[in-house]
Design goal:
The chain contains 34 helices and 25 strands. It has 1133 residues and is of the alpha+beta class. Strand 11 and strand 12 form a beta hairpin.
Length: 1133
């Protein structure tokens, strides 16, 4: 739909009067606004901006009225009447794919999910006509005659052609003479809407607005302040004076003298600001980094110049390891030199985008659309109840309902997930209004009802306790239905399959066939309406297996209206919702097509399928992706992200990354599951350079950045340290929505001209690209080079139709990405198990920036594996992806000049850190080898070595204390991170290096299983997984290190005690470093003990065998001589 931005007809020639104590203004659409002190409820900003005087407003720079104006298209949404095709779409499941026709199957037993708006449109009063009466762009009645005779557009056109008389009062329409009027005058009186074919359905569906307003200059604001303009012109217009003379002070509402108001002050306030770390902390921190780097350099130089001639092999291994550790520490430390914090202002966001203004008199939300992606793949490892709770937290988020769309990607195509989503859509009708009415936090029902403390705290409404009790009862029943889905689906399918067998048997008997011939009846999985499930069956069959099924799209909740829909207080309702908006965001189930012979690229492929399907159906310019176990903990999280995207310079941001916070972690955080050092230290530091890395979930993307386009401007960093600024090239006469967008080394003009090689052969998808780019722009304001005008996104979009969903089915087919750049330069990048890091790297490599948003209340929360085996496998997957990155073209050494140097160092460290495990493993065995051999890494423990060692250790701890100060973590969390770095480095990281080398050298593909999500309820089994021991080969190296060091300590002590010439310095050095290694491995050893010390027998077997084997190897390599003195004078009898 298109909204007119100009006044209508001859209304511009009318003088506008206002009563005393009020101000009448004209909106850009030509309607009149009254800003009365008594009736105005739009806030103090309006009253302070428009003083208490009367004035006739002439044409101003933002109000250049034209004699011809556009009339709006159909206003079904403004009138609140959902279209019939939308109702059919919401109750139809669409399937299709490669070599399969797209089909729509009406779900007879699907619950109705379309709200009926209470308002209905009036019909034309002309006899024999049933058309809808004329309305303006806001859905209000617009009778062309003073007699208020209702008439539709077609009848009005006929009346004008037949003399211009009103069919009701038979008088000539106001503004026409008795002789009639020519066509031009008639169009000036009340312009007719354009023909139906002038605007494509795609534009209406994607809420494309026509930008007819003049292009704003750099120093202009889209929300033009008439009073300020009149004041600055020093002129007097119409009735009253808009200028306060110098000798007459401003009178504030007659209460006395006061200063002149600061007009549009809020419009100039930033939505976010950057707060640097305190100089009192950061300056000593940087100084200590420099000191430690110098000391490390001097220490390594001293070590090289002073070898241990008695044990060159021991000295050589230690020196090589220490050089690598120093290099690895520098890579990790350099990006931490510029940590920053960021603060948002949600009040300014609301003032700019949701307050009534001249461009938006109804105060509709001008925020851009949001598409939220939730991914799941296996209902066995990712319980449907967890996924359903995540969906409910999204539907209840504090964001304009009509702008929010939620998509669930079920990569397993499971009926259990489908029906769980349908149950969640039903329960959302109770849960979402309850959250809005009582301001519930968090809006995940499972987490909310398990919270400790007084639930009535800060709740002001008297019916809260009653509502909470009812909703809790409904949620308990909801959980029972979700948990009972597997059994219900199994019993239903068995019953239908038995019926099919009986019918087939009856047909066989009636046809006289051989009764001994077995019947070939597929063991299908059945839906509730008695039809076959088009996805994966419990008993896999052709075209119904995990890797072979059709694409499925089901609109569970259809797009809603733009106007609030309030509930009622009927006794049939669960809660009283008279003052509560009961609308729900759009909810869509998507399962992409899978066929044998195609590489579906796991999660990255599923995300790209959602990108294309959502572009067709809603085309939100911003995308939030969440794992199925990560829910919205802070309902304002989406608004927090918009504060960065819509701020000055926000058009350069590719994504906003939120920290990951976890629930269900044991209080001691034995295996550093919270990852606080990474999320609160490393990520904050990267935010001060070019932005944090993308970590796979809790990230808000700019859609246009996912399409592989360059930012509007970027900096090039030359080899000599110079920096050059670049801007996008613009064609002559181009506008913001039709810029030339360079991609890599190419320049791509209009998206309509894009070759199918890049985005595929969907013309609808290609047409959606400039729309997403335009809607994602910040408002035109001071400091905004390319911005959109205020009020451009307030136009309602059209409901979905079957053609749109059919197009979405085609773009999620298995063949769509063939011979395109999806996964290579467009969307999530393929080729790595850590597709998230690679995708973020590609964006930074094009010059995009990112920001790190740490909210006072956690934005998102999820679960993490607390079991030792699951945790090691998780770390193994991350480390393997890093090795793949290092051996690919995504290596930071090959980065472009658009990436900052410290950002390159950070990405280089991401690819290199797993290789540290090789040196770490060797270094953990060095203390034991030293004790076994009686030698040490240095010839003697002299003062120089001890001073260097003390300085390096002390500076390390001082740096840790300062990091704790500016990041907010604790020393205990820092120490847990150090411990698990050793545990992971000696187990998972080492295996990742071996797997990565096998893939690069031999081409062996790496496969990983999903990390199981905890579905336990209550506190009694909350930490049950912590004590479960699941044997894995990753445990062998740490166990070996512990056993060898323990044996070595015993051997070293025995040798020294019984030696004729005891070498106490070497013993102390070896024992100290062995104990240091064992202290780091203590959480691993504690995990092996299980609950109450119930260690599996296999652990003792492997430990004993390894210790015996290594001891025998050492004796065979270096047998003790008879006169070595080992054992002293002790002899066996």
């Amino acid at each position: 739909m298109m909204a007119s931005s100009e006044s209508v007809g001859n209304a511009r020639n009318q003088n506008i009067y206002s009563e005393e104590g009020s101000t009448t203004k004209r909106s850009p659409s030509g309607s009149l606004l009254s800003a009365s002190e008594d009736n105005n409820d739009q806030g103090s900003h309006w009253n302070s901006g428009y003083a208490n005087y009367m004035v006739h407003i002439p044409p101003t720079p933002d109000n250049q009225l034209s004699m011809q104006a556009e009339q709006t298209m159909a206003v079904d949404d403004a009138a609140g009447k959902p279209a019939a095709n939308q109702q059919s779409v919401s109750s139809t499941i669409f399937t299709g794919g490669f070599k399969n026709a797209t089909k729509g199957h009406t779900m007879e037993k699907m619950i109705e999910r379309i709200y009926s708006h209470p308002h209905t449109a009036s019909s034309c009063s002309v006899r024999g006509c049933s058309g809808e009466e004329m309305r303006d762009e806001f859905g209000r009645e617009l009778p062309p005659c003073e007699c208020d005779f209702r008439i539709c557009t077609d009848c009005y056109a006929d009346a004008l052609k037949s003399g211009g008389k009103c069919p009701g009062c038979k008088e000539i329409y106001r503004g026409l003479n008795s002789d009639g009027a020519d066509a031009g005058e008639l169009r000036q009186l009340l312009p007719l809407p354009p023909p139906p074919g002038m605007r494509a359905g795609l534009d209406r569906r994607l809420s494309v607005t026509s930008n007819k307003s003049p292009v704003l200059r750099l120093n202009q604001t889209s929300d033009f302040d008439h009073t300020r303009w009149l004041y600055q012109t020093k002129g007097t217009y119409g009735y009253g004076n808009a200028v306060w003379p110098k000798d007459e002070p401003y009178k504030d509402g007659g209460k006395g003298n006061g200063p002149r108001p600061m007009f549009a002050e809020k419009a100039r306030r930033p939505l976010s600001r950057k707060v640097n770390a305190s100089a009192a902390i950061l300056s000593p921190y940087r100084l200590l980094v420099a000191i430690r780097m110098v000391v490390l350099g001097l220490f390594l130089a001293w070590r090289v110049r002073n070898p241990n001639r008695d044990a060159m092999w021991l000295w050589g291994m230690s020196v090589v390891c220490e050089i690598w550790f120093a290099f690895s520490w520098v890579l990790d430390q350099l990006p931490k030199l510029c940590p920053v914090n960021r603060v948002t202002d949600l009040t300014v966001l609301k003032d700019k985008f949701e307050r009534p203004t001249l461009e938006n008199p109804l105060g509709r939300s001008d925020l851009p659309g949001f598409d939220v992606f939730v991914s799941t793949a296996d209902p066995e490892k990712e319980p449907p109840l967890v996924t359903a709770n995540t969906i409910l937290s999204i539907l209840a988020a504090d964001y304009p309902v009509e702008k929010l769309n939620c998509y669930l990607s079920d990569d397993g195509g499971a009926l259990m997930t489908f029906e769980a989503l349908a149950e969640a859509a039903t329960f959302a009708r109770i849960w979402v209004p309850f959250c809005r009415k009582h301001n519930i936090e968090p809006r995940n029902p499972e987490s909310y009802f398990l919270m400790k403390g007084d639930p009535t705290k800060n709740k002001v409404k008297s019916d809260f306790v009653k509502d909470r009790r009812r909703v809790k009862r409904e949620y308990d029943e909801f959980k029972v239905r979700i948990n009972g889905l597997p059994e219900a689906i199994r019993r239903r399918s068995e019953a239908y399959n038995a019926h099919e067998e009986m019918r087939a048997k009856r047909v066989q008997v009636e046809s006289g066939d051989d009764l001994g011939e077995p019947l070939k009846i597929p063991k299908a999985t059945w839906m509730a309406d008695g039809t076959h499930w088009p996805g994966t069956w419990t008993s896999s069959d052709k075209e119904h297996a995990r890797g072979d099924h059709a694409g499925i799209i089901q609109v569970m909740l259809a797009p809603t209206t733009s106007e609030p829909v309030f509930g009622s207080s009927d006794e049939d309702n669960m809660i009283d919702t008279v003052e509560v908006d009961i609308r729900l965001p759009m909810l869509v189930y998507v399962s992409r097509e899978k066929r044998p012979g195609y590489d579906h690229n796991k999660k990255a492929g599923a995300m790209n399928a959602l990108v294309r399907a959502s572009a067709i159906m809603s085309n939100g310019p911003f995308i939030l992706n969440l794992d199925c176990d990560h829910y919205i903990f802070n309902s304002l999280a989406l608004r927090e992200a918009m504060c960065f995207m819509m701020d000055r310079g926000g058009d350069r941001l590719a994504y906003v990354q939120f920290p990951q916070r976890f629930e269900g972690i044991d209080p001691n955080d034995r295996y550093a599951n919270h990852n606080t050092v990474f999320f609160d230290v490393n990520m904050r530091a990267l935010d001060g350079i070019q932005g944090p890395v993308y970590v796979g979930t809790g990230c808000v993307f700019r859609r246009i950045a996912l399409y592989g386009f360059d930012p509007p401007r970027y900096d090039s960093h030359g080899l000599c340290g110079g920096k050059r600024k670049h801007k996008k090239a613009k064609r002559k006469g181009s506008t913001e929505s039709s810029k030339v967008i360079p991609v890599g080394d190419e320049e791509v003009g209009d998206p309509e001209a894009q070759p199918p090689k890049r985005f595929g052969n969907s013309a609808t998808f290609v047409l959606s690209i400039p729309v997403a780019e335009y809607q994602g722009l910040p408002l035109a304001d001071q400091g905004v080079k390319f911005g959109r005008p205020a009020g451009a996104l307030t136009t309602p979009r059209e409901p979905l139709d079957a053609e749109t969903v059919a197009e979405a089915i085609s773009v999620i087919s298995s063949w769509y990405e063939d011979k395109t750049e999806w996964g290579q330069r467009v969307g999530w990048i393929y080729g790595s198990v850590t597709e998230d890091v690679v995708t973020g790297y590609r964006m930074h490599n094009r010059g995009w920036r990112s920001v790190y948003c740490v909210t006072q209340r956690d934005a998102f929360r999820g679960t993490a594996p607390i079991n030792l085996t699951d945790r090691l496998h998780q770390v193994l997957r991350w480390a393997t992806g890093s090795v793949e990155i290092f051996f690919s073209k995504n290596n930071a050494l090959l980065a472009s000049s658009r990436m900052k140097y410290l950002q390159r160092v950070a990405y280089l460290n991401v690819g290199i850190y797993p290789f540290t495990s090789i040196f770490l493993l060797v270094y953990c065995f060095l203390p034991a080898l030293s004790l076994f051999s009686g030698q040490f890494i240095v010839k003697t423990l002299n003062v120089t070595f001890l001073v260097y060692l003390l300085t390096i250790t002390v500076t390390l701890f001082m740096l840790a204390i300062l990091e704790v100060k500016w990041s907010g973590i604790t020393l205990d969390e820092w120490w847990r991170n150090e411990q698990f770095w050793v545990i992971g480095g000696t187990s998972a990281h080492l295996a990742a290096v071996l797997q990565g080398l096998l893939k690069v050298v031999a081409g062996v593909e790496i496969s990983f299983t999903l990390t199981s999500k905890s579905g336990g309820e209550g506190e009694q089994d909350q930490f049950a997984d912590l004590y479960i021991i699941k044997w894995t080969a990753l445990m062998i190296p740490p166990i070996t290190i512990m056993m060898i060091n323990l044996v070595a300590i015993a051997v070293g002590i025995s040798r020294t005690i019984y030696s004729e010439i005891p070498q106490w310095s070497k013993l102390i050095g070896g024992v100290f470093f062995s104990l240091w290694v064992l202290a780091h491995l203590y959480p691993f050893a504690k995990g092996l003990m299980g609950k109450r010390g119930r260690t599996p027998t296999i652990v003792f077997v492997w430990s004993g065998l390894l210790a015996i084997i290594i001891s025998l190897l050492w004796v065979s390599i270096s047998p003790p001589s008879p006169n070595s003195g080992i054992g002293g004078s002790f002899q066996f009898p």
